Amino acid sequence: MQPVSLLEIAHHRLEQILCPGDVAIDATLGNGHDALFLAQRVGEQGSVYGFDIQVQAIAATQARLAQYPQHKVTLFNVCHAQMLRLLPESLKGQIKAVMFNLGYLPGGDKTLITQSHTTLAALNAAGKFLAERGMMTVLAYPGHQGGDQEVQALSDWLERQPDYQVELIHSQHPRPYAPRLFVIRKQSHLL
Q1: Contacts of 94 (CB under 8 A, 6+ apart)
Q2: Could you give the 3-state DSSP secondary structure of residue 67?
Q3: What gap in Å lies between CA 135 and CA 166, rounded to an integer?
Q4: Which sequence ranges are marked TM in the entry (predicted)?
Q5: What angle do the packed helices 33-42 and 6-15 form, to 10 degrees?
Q6: 3-state secondary structure (DSSP) of residue 1
Q7: Mind listing the pLDDT tens digit for each residue in 94-148?
Q8: Could you give the C-alpha distances from 85 to 76, 89, 126, 159, in angstroms and in order?
């Protein structure tokens, strides 16, 4: 049996909470794999909102989603830090899942990377939209230039968030620069 990737683990965790009709966000579209996964999970009754600063990522996601024209997917060619400004106010507290896949666009320009300050702004914005018991997954890569700082900033930010339960899953390759997955669950205020 092959080892399970961190992305597969993220998808598995989200499969447990996402239902047809839900609303989800792909905060970093990349090549569109997560947007497609989210669209398939929420179905034709649900909605997905996606963000990426690179036109190449928007085009790759549109191509990947072309076989599902009936799904409601809205793509924004902007930084994920803009989600608070762009998403409808009516979605606050309604988003069931948010996915982040940090770093650079696979197959793209490796000098264009997610930045700590925009990622933290996006996480703060996503938290405002996240429903109680909703989930964010953040796949982080400390092994590239700027990645270590982003992972540290993310870890520091999570330590200051009392409304979240965090599960940290390390890669099966235990090296300091190996990828890691943060599974972040918003707690219910009724507990």
Answers
A1: 23, 129, 131
A2: coil
A3: 10
A4: none
A5: 20
A6: coil
A7: 999 999 999 988 888 888 889 999 999 999 999 999 999 999 999 999 988 888 9
A8: 11, 9, 11, 26
Helix (H, G, I), strand (E, B), or coil: what is residue 77? Answer: coil
**Residue 35: closest CA among 48, 44, 47:** 48
Q: Which among 12, 106, 131 has a CA at the least distance from the CA of 52?
A: 106
Give yes or no for a contact between 96 and 134, defined as CB atoms under 8 angstroms apart. yes
d(CA 7, CA 11): 6
Closest residue by Cα to residue 28 from 119, 143, 94: 119
35-93 pLDDT per residue, tens: 999 999 999 999 999 999 999 999 999 999 998 888 899 999 999 999 999 999 999 99
Backbone torsions φ then ψ of 34, nearest 5 degrees? -70, -40
Euclidean distance between CA atoms 14 and 4, whole angstroms? 15
Coil vs helix vs strand at 130: strand
CA atoms within 13 A on the CB side of 43: 7
- Which amino acid, 113? I
Consecutive H or E run containing 88: none
So where are the chain's domains? 6-186
Amino acid (one-letter) located at 156 = D
Q: Is the pTM of this model over 0.90?
A: yes
